[in-house]
Amino acid sequence: MTWQPLERTQPRLQDGTPVEYPKGTEQWANDLYVVIKAPLGSATGAEGWHLSIRRQDRTTARDWRHFQRMKNQLCGPEMEGIELYPAESRLVDTANQYHVWVVADAIPIGFPGRLVLDEEGLMPGAEQRAFEDVDLQHGGRTSKDEYNAMMLLAQANGVRGADAVAAARLKTWDD
After folding, report:
1. Last residue of a domain, one of 41, 71, 103
2. CB atoms within 10 A of CB 71
3. What pTM does this model have?
4. Residue 16 shares a structural domain with residue 94
5. Tens of pLDDT along 95-120?
6. Would you say 82 and 100 are in contact if contact means Cβ atoms under 8 Å apart?
7. Sorting pLDDT into bands at 50, 70 and 90, what band is 174?
């Protein structure tokens, strides 16, 4: 199945009645998903958006690349988003709905650089499905030569074995 970009849609109840969202809130959809994009607002103290994502068929969804594509299209490829697994006292679980908070500032956790591998550069025993062009429009694959160079640099800095793999991915040695 080929990815279809999201298009802005008119929100409606299941009976067809139009819905008016608060100012700045938009609804987007494609053949698989419906996304409500709302500004975070002054209550959060952060600039950005809340993306509320559900499948059209209302079943569970767990395709990381799809969520990345939606974040890129609606908020920008250099914006960072995060899902929160909250304390039980703040849990909201009312439907097969997913929430991604996208903020203007970099989130101070995560990997420091890009590493995108396909079947050519994978570690032995690892599996990865093929990329679609849309997955690579903001940066390409990491070539086997680039990956090997990162591994050699990690090892040259005294990092060995599985730690070299992690260090190559994270570039966690002193330059």
Report:
1. 103
2. 20
3. 0.74
4. yes
5. 999 999 999 888 888 777 777 766 66
6. yes
7. very low
Q: Are residues 150 and 96 in the same domain?
A: no
What is the helix (H) or strand (E) element at residue 154, kind and residue range?
Answer: helix 144-156
Which residue is it, tokens 């607002």?
41
Helices 161-170 and 144-156: crossing angle, nearest 10°? Answer: 120
- The structure tokens listed for 76 are 């920008």
Q: What is the per-residue pLDDT across 27-62, written as a single tens digit (0 to 9) for each?
A: 999 999 999 999 998 667 778 999 999 999 999 988
Is residue 125 included in any domain, yes or no?
yes
Q: Of 57, 86, 103, which residue is a domain's last?
A: 103
In 3D space, the residue among 107, 102, 104, 105 whose CA is nearest the CA of residue 38 turns out to be 102
State the Rg of the chain over Cα.
Answer: 20
Between CA 127 and CA 6 the distance in angstroms is 28
CA distance linking residue 19 with residue 96, whole number of Å? 20
Q: Which amino acid is at 159?
A: V
